[in-house]
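Hi support team,

I've been running sequence recovery on a batch of backbones for a student project. Most finish fine, but this one hangs at about 90% for roughly twenty minutes before it completes. I'm not sure whether the input is malformed or the queue is just slow. I've pasted the structure tokens below so you can try to reproduce it. Let me know if you need the job ID as well.

Thanks,
M.K.
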């Protein structure tokens, strides 16, 4: 799958690098893409809408409403139309609007409405680029699963030398092409995803649970959806859920038992299972039907092990199925993770360590190591959960593309 026939929304904002948008449109149109340009008003100070309209073979959109023709440009429709939204160049101003969810022009409204993957190529002067607030905004949109094409180092329009130059159109084109190519293997592939914590009732009012927010699961759902997968997500009560998508079905559950029943029911139809759920290890042996009274100073509750969903699925796994699990360890990390990988018959386990700053529950970042059945390992640096999710999806995709899934 290439760029041919793809619908690309290209946002152009006010930066001198807007002149590069012309070459980028040429490359995309030549490759057979359908390019719809949206410009901010300050972008028009840098390059003429006529130039971009001529190259893209479509009128350039600048406002919700075209006063001359009376035509209304729906940001919602634009957001649904696109296979990908690319903002190149992305100015510091539009970056901060995206980071804050502001909605002051057609481009910003379309960004908020877009269900497709969003890519941005920032361009600004050296000091603006390295400013902590710019870097903070980049982190924020990255946590919102925007793909950032980092600015390059070189001579800038100001005459200063440093990082801030927009990536070259050829490089952006290559990245988009890779994005569309890689989307093939997972297209319409059914994936089972468990996510969030579980709640094990002690009585009608209290439960045993853990700190899982569901962020990692939501990020993985979105990464898989972006690659064309059909995601069946079995989610415990979470704080974060993926954006709605026609290829996403969420099955809400509470307890490990409910999650297990639902996951086992779905697993048979799925090629891939990604088990991010922080399933409670113990449940009350006998949950009380009435609220337990505060009568004695001490209270003992007898607990019994919950069913290990991953191990259960590992037992019934067929040759064409692939299971990715997670291990959150605080000590003897590798040894414990490897033991789990084998015992639960997983194909890969994602080890994250609570001892790494920025990793684990509630954070937007994660530091993980992939451990494979083959003994191979891959350690990733501290990344946003969205980036970790993309890396995990790429492993699944490579596995499917390699034909191993067709055994
Ligand atoms: O044994 P541990 O809980 O550390 O294993 C973590 C992995 O196993 C995760 O992928 C988690 O989703 C899965 N798991 C499960 N059912 C359980 C416990 C863990 O699916 N009861």
């Amino acid at each position: 799958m290439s760029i041919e026939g793809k619908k690309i929304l290209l946002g152009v904002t006010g930066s001198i690098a807007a002149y590069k948008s012309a070459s980028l449109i040429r490359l995309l149109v030549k490759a057979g893409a359908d390019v719809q340009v949206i410009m901010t008003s300050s972008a028009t100070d840098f390059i003429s809408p006529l130039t971009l309209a001529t190259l893209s073979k479509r009128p350039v959109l600048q406002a919700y409403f075209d006063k001359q023709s009376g035509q209304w440009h729906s940001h919602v429709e634009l957001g649904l139309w696109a296979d990908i939204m690319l903002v190149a160049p992305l100015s510091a101003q539009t970056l901060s609007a995206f980071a804050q969810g502001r909605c002051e022009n057609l481009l910003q409204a379309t960004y908020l409405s877009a269900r497709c993957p969003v890519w941005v190529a920032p361009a600004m002067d050296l000091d603006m680029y390295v400013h902590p607030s710019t870097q903070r905004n980049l982190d924020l949109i990255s946590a919102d699963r925007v793909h950032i094409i980092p600015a390059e180092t070189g001579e800038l329009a100001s005459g200063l030398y440093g990082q801030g130059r927009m990536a070259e159109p050829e490089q952006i084109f290559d990245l988009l092409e890779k994005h569309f190519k890689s989307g093939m293997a997972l297209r319409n592939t059914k994936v089972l995803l468990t996510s969030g914590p579980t709640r094990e009732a002690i009585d009608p009012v209290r439960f045993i649970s853990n700190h899982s927010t569901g962020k990692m699961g939501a990020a993985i759902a979105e990464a898989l959806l972006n690659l064309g997968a059909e995601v069946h997500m079995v989610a415990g009560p979470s704080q974060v859920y993926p954006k709605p998508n026609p290829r996403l079905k969420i099955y809400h559950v509470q307890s490990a038992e409910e999650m297990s029943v639902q996951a086992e029911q779905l697993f048979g139809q799925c090629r891939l299972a990604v088990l991010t759920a922080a399933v409670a290890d113990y449940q009350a042996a006998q949950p009380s039907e009435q609220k337990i009274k505060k009568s004695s100073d001490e209270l003992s509750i007898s607990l019994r092990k919950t069913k290990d969903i991953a191990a259960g699925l590992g037992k019934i796994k067929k040759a064409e199925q692939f299971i990715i699990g997670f291990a959150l360890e605080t000590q003897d990390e590798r040894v414990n993770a490897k033991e789990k990988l084998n015992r639960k018959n997983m194909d890969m386990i994602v080890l994250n360590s609570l001892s790494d700053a920025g990793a684990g529950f509630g954070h937007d970042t994660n530091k993980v190591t992939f451990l494979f059945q083959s003994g191979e390992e891959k350690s990733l640096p501290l990344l946003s959960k969205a980036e970790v999710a993309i890396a995990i999806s790429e492993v699944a995709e490579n596995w499917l593309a390699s034909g191993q899934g067709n055994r």
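--
Follow-up from support: It reproduced on our side and the slowdown came from queue contention, not your input. Residues 326 and 350 are 5 Å apart (CA to CA). No action needed from you.
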